[in-house]
Amino acid sequence: MIDQQVSLRGGAACLPVRPRTGRYLVLAAVFVCAACGLVYELELVALASYLIGDSVTQASVVLSVMVFAMGVGSLLAKRLRSRAAVGFGLIEGALALVGGSSALVLYASFAWIGESRYALVGFSLTIGILIGAEIPLLMTLIQRVDRQDAGGAVADLFAADYVGALVGGLAFPFLLLPMLGQLTGALFTGAVNAAAGGALVLWVFRRDLGPRSRWLLIVFNVAVIAVLAVATALVDDFERAARRAVYGDGVRVAVQTEVQEVVLTGSGRSSLDLYLDGRLRVSARDEYRYHEALVHPAMNGPHARVLILGGGDGLAAREVLRYPDVRDVTVVELDRGVTRLARTDPALSELNGHAFRDPRLTAVTADAFNWLRAAHGSYDVVISDLPDPGISTSTKLYSAEFYGLVAQALAPGGRVVVHGGPSVSRPRTFWTVEASMRAAGLRTCPYRIGGRLADSAAGPDRATHRAQRAHGWGFVLAGPGKAPELGLARQAPELRSMTEPGLVDAGRRTERDRLPGLEPSTLVHPRYWEDR
């Protein structure tokens, strides 16, 4: 009876390691499991932002659901404390399987079903419950290894948990994502998770397991790791099949750059489509309509020096370089992978007229906001060819502060033109862009042009494509002194999409639809979600 009481108080008599060693092993497992848990969370946020859009909303959904579910998991784990070792082993195996396969299943649900929101919530809830069940069981196990006061045990557990979360949070963007990609990175993380949890229980706490429990854990963990390994071996085939389901059969180039996923479809110049993070940015069948409307109204005036913000595909630069009196064109593009394709891909370089070979053009890889802050001289024309303002990652490039920097970069009499999204289907977004430009001291002249000709349903962002086809693109032309007049330069080349009378009429029709009284978007108060 005395020996039994000593064993229960000390907790180390039935373990194959010394108490201090066992304690460190438990904390090491906490560290690894916390790192894996945060990787699962970041995988869900990143992939949901790509598939659904609006990273702020997707991050809020994932985080809030997971935190709620962690509380539920902690309560449910109370029932497993009497069998903490086997419970923890099974939970880690389940977490490895669910978390490791989450990105793959989320992408599959979007590719073949067309909807991933329900899968996102389901995975957030399940992963949160499993993560929440870890700490109560680990608290029991660490007390089993080395009996100490509850406050000290909690402090040790949470210290290891938080440090592990830090490592996982840094490993995801700087190691896993660039080296393995989203799908393989999640599968690899799951395998590490299963190995760490299984090793802790099957080694340190093996004497707490009966023969049936031991074999159950061995078979379960081996099966989980085998499933993840097979999925990893087949992930390339899966990605190709999923891309065909999303983009059609014409996928020719698909690369994950440091910034985004870039996909080129089509066999040649006339059928080329360019997708950035799933959003159709260029369709060879009608891109001239967008780029002519973006560039040529801004060229009505001095245009010796031109700055293009974004536009790494070279298509806006192609239109600018059609003016023989342009002396200098600077393209500031964040993603060097896009400019590389624009230079080297035969179809895309032919479409942009080999603009990057022109000696007048200089390409810079930089964030447009930070580049403007560094002050690089003055320009006669600034062309903002940036992602849609409704994409939360680009909202700073549609803020009043950003337009203030643009205004400083304009020479006297200079002009800036901005793509503000479809003015008919998303009027609050478009007129918020215009209000933000006015807040920076610019005088504006809005206009729009008819929509896409191509009827492509490929790519994740089908809703935006349909809006562009139905309602066209909206633009805002502006200047620092007075509003520029809509028109075309005398030396403007022949255009396929517009005439000067048609452009002036487009400006009048757009002005009639003005939404007055909108507040500007700023860095601390972005306002581009109101149309969603």
Automatic annotation (TrEMBL):
Record membrane topology: Multi-pass membrane protein
UniProt-annotated binding residues for spermidine: H291, D313
Main localization of the protein described in the UniProt heading: membrane
Reaction(s) catalysed by this chain's protein: S-adenosyl 3-(methylsulfanyl)propylamine + putrescine = S-methyl-5'-thioadenosine + spermidine + H(+)
Keyword RNA-binding: no
Annotated Gene3D superfamilies: Vaccinia Virus protein VP39
Domain PABS: 226-480
EC number(s) stated in the UniProt entry for this protein: 2.5.1.16
Residue ranges of the region described as Disordered: 496-521
Binding annotation for S-methyl-5'-thioadenosine: Q260, E333, D367, A368
Record protein name field: Polyamine aminopropyltransferase
Naturally occurring in which organism (per UniProt): Streptomyces sanglieri
Origin organism lineage: Bacteria, Bacillati, Actinomycetota, Actinomycetes, Kitasatosporales
